């Protein structure tokens, strides 16, 4: 979604406190509507409450232990409030709760994302789901 946003200039400003652009959620939805209606699209983003429920057949929420997450974010240059807020978001399961409130509970799945082995398992699980979806929908 970041590439699409940058290419389409789908921002409505810049957040100095978090040192990042502010996404124009309405423009993103408008930009994606045609692509999503065709199906077979994967959306990767750190939030979901503004995406229409009809777009998704399954939602995966990646979860990370705080010590791993802290190191990852710090290595990306996150500091101060941005670092703390991201850690708190994981502690309070904010994104998982958002997904559970935004979509049918049976399509929302948590995947651990702490180790390279977790990454391999997650990729395998997602690929299996995609293969099954393609069989069911083609």
From TrEMBL:
It catalyses: AMP + ATP = 2 ADP. PANTHER family: ADENYLATE KINASE ISOENZYME 6, POS9-ACTIVATING FACTOR FAP7-RELATED. SUPFAM superfamilies: P-loop containing nucleoside triphosphate hydrolases. Keywords: ATP-binding, Cytoplasm, Kinase, Nucleotide-binding, Nucleus, Ribosome biogenesis, rRNA processing, Transferase. GO terms for cellular component: cytoplasm; nucleus. Gene3D superfamilies: P-loop containing nucleotide triphosphate hydrolases. One of its GO terms (biological process) is rRNA processing. This is KAD6 kinase. The keyword 4Fe-4S does not apply. One of its GO terms (molecular function) is ATP hydrolysis activity. It comes from Regulus satrapa (Golden-crowned kinglet). InterPro entries: Adenyl_kinase_AK6, P-loop_NTPase. It is found in: Nucleus.
